Amino acid sequence: xxxxxxxxxxxxxxxxxxxxxxxxxxxxxxxxxxxxxxxxxxxxxxxxxxxxxxxxxxxxxxxxxxxxxxxxxxxxxxxxxxxxxxxxxxxxxxxxxxxxxxxxxxxxxxxxxxxxxxxxxxxxxxxxxxxxxxxxxxxxxxxxxxxxxxxxxxxxxxxxxxxxxxxxxxxxxxxxxxxxxxxxxxxxxxxxxxxxxxxxxxxxxxxxxxxxxxxxxxxxxxxxxxxxxxxxxxxxxxxxxxxxxxxx
Length: 248
Description:
This protein is an all-alpha fold and 248 residues long. It has a single domain, classed as Up-down Bundle (Heme Oxygenase, Chain A). 69% of the residues lie in helices and 0% in strands. It contains twelve helices and no strands. The protein has helices at 8-22, 28-34, 40-65, 71-77, 79-85, 92-103, 108-112, 119-134, 137-142, 150-164, 174-197, 201-230. α1 packs parallel to α12 (201-230), α3 (40-65) runs parallel beside α8 and α6 (92-103) runs antiparallel to α11 (174-197). The mean pLDDT is 96.
């Protein structure tokens, strides 16, 4: 194994190749969702479990910022927290996700209670938060670079949901619409920071491993949904049961 770092072009290509190989847009659950083949309960299970991930993103970012000594990096990073939490009640990505929950027939208070989250979802998401909290700053930042691949999945999701599901409209899909402008801003900064600070081959390899880990976190969440709600449909103890948490 060489110790010589890759050129910037080759290093960036290595990062992008991770998404081309294993970003979760390739998971069969997303193909099922975007093509209109999910049942209402399968959509609800996805919304409930993905909510846990959404709520942990600002917690992950706060944990990251608590370790950053550089004020410039903190200033650049803190907008991610506001994107999800908003600057006032009812604003931000988490609130928009609850609008989606309401649209698919769920009680937003039930979803916000985090009751019914699959055990595998908790394990995967908590592992990601822990990774960002304890790993060196370079892999912690690199793990966020799944945002490189997010705009395409958001566009496909918006188009697919609008075409196939009655609940889909500008209000219920506002989370994804907003991410089309938020994610490119975040990834431009994150990719630039990683490219600048991954100066050795070991740094570059660590960044690629971190991004690979993050894709595995996302993939594991969909594997859990598939196992519990698609086939063979084994809902584990504690997982959401259809007919629970529905809007009255």
